[in-house]
Model the fold of this input.
Amino acid sequence: MQNTQVDLSIIVVAWNVKELCDECFRAIAKSTDTLVKEILFVDNGSVDGTADYVEATFPEVILIRSPTNLGFIRANNLAYKQARGKYILMLNSDAFVFEETLQVSVDFMEQHPEAGVMGGRLIGRDGVLQPSARYFPTPFKSFLNQIGLLGKIPFVGVLDDLTWDHQTVRECDWVVGCYLLTRKDIIDRMGYFLREDFFMYNDDNDLCYRIKQLGYKTYYVPTDVIHLGGATAKKNMGKVSKRGTQVVKLQLESQLIYYRKNYHIGTALSSVFSCSCLIFFLCSSCFLLVKTPMMTVSRT
Done:
């Protein structure tokens, strides 16, 4: 396929989730699309045999072995360097496409040259809708969200709106990186894919923000994708532990980077103040008196 024009490059990154990778790749194999596609899989230093299993079970997958966990962002960038498709799809290992999803997605981009990014309708296994067409965060919104007051103060917008039917195409600010389709020529023009200042989190809204700055639009398209991460994240975040606190810390650090890179200095400073208060509260409540080493973590 070296000399063949590739329509779609699918990038999957995973760490110690062999069963999820199996389901993810089997779902892609069942796709009824007519696209020329490639799957680039970065195994982020798994120790559960994920890489060997994928190599033996899915020989069509381009396997990239990392001896260590590079983090979600750097691993995606590593795969992007080998991608040859006209379109680039970020797909989480815990996100499973339906038979028509890939074709509907690429067809939409082909028919809408103003679209720089598109995402699908994210649902759990139970069919429950997850946030799929999102609004850009601001420091004040993030702070209100952390303390449970977002949506309860007049004149302050929300991050998500699940009240509409989600059966129609809608322009939005950003879509979730578990299923995010964009154009390779836009990424090449920007000079890089995901911002490596992040370890994980906020890479998707940052990417959508940068692409919007170039004059392109982001669209939600009602084609279904099963995503397990919404429920998993909520479950893990509910645990008061060093591990759970580190995940929160990563989220907050990513927010700071996002605001610093994309907003003016006054906004960045206000976000630092807000998030510093939150970090202080979390550290105090969990009695973290010493610095905990960075854990090896996967977004899925």
